[in-house]
Automatic annotation (TrEMBL):
Keyword Iron annotated: yes
Protein's organism: Penicillium arizonense
TauD/TfdA-like domain ranges (all copies): 21-303
Protein known as: TauD/TfdA-like domain-containing protein
Any Pfam family the entry gives: TauD
GO molecular-function term, one example from the UniProt record: dioxygenase activity
Top-rank lineage group of the source organism: Eukaryota
Length: 328
């Protein structure tokens, strides 16, 4: 993340921080430079980290020092039930833990993905659109934790951006808040991939209406803080009860509002071993492209923890959630 700039967030007052917390944006995001999570944490320490996550939405831990995938999964379990991939694409590396999602630019042979690899390139482009992990699932994703194994050389790109959707909601005109307060967005994994690579043969003849859809409130409450947020991700295809084009227009308008530069922070990855955790029920994120693509290895691994808040299942059937697809 960029250098510390501004005032600490008010609600951090009164908490006895065992480590320095550096805010990285006027309204959200922080880093904890001295925190090493490879060591066992007390319940109090973990609760403190979780409290920061709820308050700031994004927490960078540059010296996380997790030694391996297993410790990454174990730390993630402290937040709740960790998602498992049900299906490993033959175009991805075979990583040993089903809980670890491969967010690298490496193919099944551990080689750098090249432009001709359409499936992988489409997924990479899909991740560069604003989204919340797992919004296309009937049960949402709560925490994501991304860990840098091997970063490309500095200055070759690969930053991760975050958008503060709680503040973006708060700043909307009252009239707009009233207009959207009870709306439901319909999310589709396919939709994100189609807009990422619209001309691809992969999507010819496919319609989002023939594939799984998930219904989530457009303005869910972030339960730990009680603050509403704008759940407008690039998986959101339309709005229930509105004509398709009208819903798309509203989604676009809200997305543009929520991702204005004033609501965005750009995280610059510093060193291998760094980890960033974020709350998908409070912020959006996206990968950014860069000169490293097709040239340098970028090995990133991620876990996702399922949401257990009252908004977790949106308006979906909880039974369907048992068969939900992988997170992305
Ligand atoms: Fe993501």
């Amino acid at each position: 993340m960029s250098t510390a700039t501004t005032t600490a967030i008010e609600s951090s007052k009164g908490i006895d921080f065992p480590y320095e917390v550096v805010p990285v944006h006027p309204k959200f995001g922080c880093r904890i430079p001295d925190l090493d999570i490879s060591k066992p944490l007390s319940e109090q320490e973990f609760n403190w980290i979780r409290g920061l996550l709820h308050q700031y939405g994004v927490v960078a831990i540059p010296n996380a020092n997790l030694p391996d995938d297993e410790s990454h999964v174990n730390f993630s379990r402290l937040f709740g039930e960790v998602e498992k991939s049900r299906f490993r694409s033959p175009h991805m590396r075979s990583l040993p833990f089903a809980e670890i999602f491969d967010i690298s630019n490496l193919d099944e042979n551990d080689e750098i993905v090249m432009p001709g690899n359409e499936k992988r390139i489409t997924a990479i482009r899909g991740n560069s659109l604003w989204h919340a992990d797992g919004s296309f699932n009937p049960r949402r994703t709560y925490v994501s934790m991304l860990r840098a194994i091997e970063l490309p050389p500095k200055g070759t790109g690969g930053e991760t951006e975050f958008a503060d959707t709680r503040q973006a909601y708060e700043d909307l005109p009252e009239e707009k808040k009233l207009q959207i307060k009870d709306l439901v967005a319909v999310h589709s994994f396919l939709h994100n991939r189609q807009i990422a690579n619209p001309d691809s043969e992969l999507f010819k003849g496919r319609s989002v209406f023939d594939e799984p859809l998930a219904r989530h409130k457009l303005v869910p409450i972030h339960e730990p803080t009680g603050r509403p947020m704008l759940y407008v991700t690039s998986y959101a295809h339309h709005i229930e009860g509105l004509a398709i084009e009208e819903g798309k227009k509203l989604l676009k308008e809200l997305m543009e509002h929520a991702t204005q530069p004033k609501y965005v922070l750009r995280h610059q990855w510093q060193n291998n071993g760094e980890a960033v955790i974020w709350d998908n029920t409070a912020v959006l994120h996206r990968a950014t492209p860069g000169g490293y693509e097709g040239k340098y290895r970028r090995d990133m691994r991620r876990t996702c923890v399922m949401d257990s808040s009252t908004e977790a299942y949106g308006l979906n059937n909880q039974e369907e959630a048992k068969n939900q697809r992988n997170s992305s």
